[in-house]
């Protein structure tokens, strides 16, 4: 049943929740699957009159339910005659929460809800122009549909991705260069999904999904809201890159973008991963676009609610501090650490589709596989060990970077050597920073102890090396445990500034390499031809 429900989520793009029943001998169980859990009814024994009556009542009630009660989304409808879907998107960005939704059409899904539980994120390539039989659908926007953790009150919801994207759009217009405009997320519309039932307007959230289910307090699901966002940029996944200079440009673009967003908007992304980076093209040059602010946090807002009940991020790329579920404050350094892991992961698999010599399952034989198995504590131990020293990084991780030129020796492969240099510089700047004002207590990936001998009280005889009666013996103080992650928070601004210098340096070099390797553009190319080739590439 679990496998079948998962397939339903993947292929039915308007499925919000799912019903099913399991038959075990003479007993029938009704099951309801939501975002965080599946709940089951008491068994109905069909060998008894009472059990048969309950089962028949169930089937009759199901037959009388409306679509939204059966788990379908009334704001997303399939149009079989046109071979596409019609979807309504809320428009809270400029018009307020009472504005009428915008209507879009899509027939291409770039991200499926293929997990049994979670946010059930889907992404569609869409257009606001209704297609016809003679006029095929040409996508101009991407729509993200997800069930994210939220607060019930919109005004108090500090996790609202729509608010954050609106803030980014409004704030960064005066702070970015025109040529960098392409790497920043741009929201067109978005908000909480709602639908009309009778004369009532119903917000689509977990309260709506579970309105007929009564939970014990300890079993109540976390509150989620169904949110839809329309973005103007259409990009490609990281695996479509074809060279190391493209890859370095893209990942450095992402961290440059992240740094600007944090500096001017005080928004911390908290989920740097391969799924949240898109490749966009600018005159043939690959640039990086950071997406998915579901896990982001607006640090300028004072939070009155407890932290969200999830460990934010994507497992192989989570920072040690995050995986440890530590009380140490999360900062931009955690996201730089995630980027370091992402570069190592991608370099091990191979950069670009033509150079991707390994599949994800091939990593199981390598030390890097420890980043996604064995539980949180095991992953923490592995990362502490792999990044404790540069030698450990080279021995356990960098030596297994996929060869770009087919050579196992990095000295014969300048691209591989380039990637190794990048991860070593990032590791050193993050974990072994030696800038002025950054002390030894900020270095390392594990806690360590320091202890001092207190000065003994001695007379003059004691000073000559003889102990006299009544002189106090040396007292060893209790060792002090130093947490370098905690100490780095105090020096976060200095370390982040140094990391940005490294990122800017590699970005500039990689972008120049891209420019040199690209053929000169054709002079006479019409606008329609340009747009056509761009969409064909997408």
Question: Which helices and strands, and how do they pair?
Answer:
Layout: H1 2-11, E1 18-24, E2 27-33, E3 38-40, E4 44-45, H2 49-64, E5 76-79, E6 84-89, E7 102-111, E8 122-127, E9 141-149, H3 161-172, E10 187-192, E11 194-197, E12 200-203, H4 206-209, E13 224-231, H5 244-265, E14 267-268, E15 277-282, E16 285-290, E17 297-298, H6 320-323, H7 332-349, H8 376-386, H9 390-396, H10 414-431, E18 448-450, H11 460-463, E19 480-482, H12 484-490, H13 492-517, H14 527-537
Antiparallel strand pairs: 1-2, 2-3, 2-4, 5-6, 6-7, 7-8, 8-9, 9-13, 10-13, 11-12, 14-17, 15-16, 18-19
Helix pairs in contact: 3-5, 5-7, 5-13, 7-10, 10-13
Q: Would you identify the regions where 5 or more consecutive residues have pLDDT less than 50?
A: 306-310, 453-469, 522-538
- The amount of beta strand, in percent, is 15-25%
Number of helical stretches of at least 4 residues: 14
The best one-word shape is globular
**Count of β-strands:** 19
Distance between the termini: 36 Å
> In terms of structural class, how would the helical and strand content be classed?
alpha+beta
Mean pLDDT: 85
Please identify the oligomeric state. single chain
Could you describe the largest sheet, including whether it forms a barrel?
Answer: 7 strands, antiparallel
Helix content: 25-40%
């Amino acid at each position: 049943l679990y496998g079948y429900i998962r397939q339903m989520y993947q292929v039915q793009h308007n499925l919000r929740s799912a019903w099913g029943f399991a038959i075990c001998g003479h007993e029938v169980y009704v099951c309801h699957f939501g975002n965080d859990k599946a709940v089951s009814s008491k068994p109905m024994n069909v060998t008894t009159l009472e059990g048969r009556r309950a089962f028949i009542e169930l089937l009759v009630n199901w037959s009388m339910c409306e679509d939204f009660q059966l788990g379908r989304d009334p704001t997303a409808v399939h149009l079989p005659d046109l071979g596409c879907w019609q979807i309504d998107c809320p428009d809270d960005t400029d018009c307020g929460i009472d504005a009428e939704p915008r209507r879009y059409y899509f027939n291409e899904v770039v991200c499926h809800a293929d997990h049994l539980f979670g946010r059930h994120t889907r992404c569609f390539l869409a257009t606001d122009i209704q297609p016809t039989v003679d006029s095929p659908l040409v996508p101009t926007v991407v729509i993200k549909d997800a069930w994210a953790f939220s607060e019930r009150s919109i005004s108090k919801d500090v996790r609202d991705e729509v608010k954050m994207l609106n803030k980014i759009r409004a704030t960064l217009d005066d702070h970015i260069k025109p040529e960098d405009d392409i790497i920043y997320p741009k929201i067109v519309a978005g908000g909480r999904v709602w639908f009309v039932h009778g004369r009532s307007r119903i917000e689509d959230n977990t309260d709506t999904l579970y309105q007929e289910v009564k939970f014990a307090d300890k079993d109540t699901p976390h509150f989620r809201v169904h949110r839809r966002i329309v973005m103007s940029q259409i990009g490609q996944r990281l695996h479509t890159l074809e060279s190391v200079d493209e890859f370095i440009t893209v990942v450095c673009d992402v961290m440059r973008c992240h740094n600007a967003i944090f500096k001017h908007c005080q928004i911390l992304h908290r989920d740097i991963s391969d799924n949240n980076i898109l490749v966009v093209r600018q005159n043939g040059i690959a640039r990086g676009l950071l997406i998915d602010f579901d896990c982001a946090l607006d640090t300028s807002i004072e939070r009155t609610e407890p932290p969200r009940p999830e460990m934010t991020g994507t497992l192989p790329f989570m920072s040690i501090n995050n995986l440890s579920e530590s009380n140490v404050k999360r900062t931009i350094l955690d996201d730089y650490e995630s980027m370091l892991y992402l570069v190592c992961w991608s370099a091990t698999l191979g950069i670009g589709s033509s150079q991707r010599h390994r599949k994800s399952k091939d990593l199981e034989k390598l030390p890097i596989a420890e980043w996604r198995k064995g539980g949180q504590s095991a992953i923490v131990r592995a990362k502490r060990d792999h990044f404790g020293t540069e030698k450990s990084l080279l021995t356990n991780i960098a030596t297994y970077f996929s060869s770009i030129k087919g050579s196992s020796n990095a000295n014969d492969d300048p691209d591989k050597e380039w990637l190794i240099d990048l991860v070593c510089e990032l590791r050193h700047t993050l974990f072994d920073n030696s800038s002025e004002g950054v002390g030894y207590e900020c270095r390392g990936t594990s806690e360590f102890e320091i202890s001092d001998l207190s000065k003994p009280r001695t007379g003059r005889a004691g000073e000559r090396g003889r102990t006299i009666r009544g002189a106090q013996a040396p007292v060893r103080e209790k060792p002090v445990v130093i947490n370098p992650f905690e100490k780095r928070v105090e020096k976060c601004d200095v370390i982040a500034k140094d990391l940005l210098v490294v990122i800017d340096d590699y970005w500039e070099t990689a972008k120049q390499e891209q420019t040199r390797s690209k053929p000169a553009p054709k002079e006479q190319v019409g606008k329609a031809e340009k747009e056509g080739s761009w969409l064909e590439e997408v």
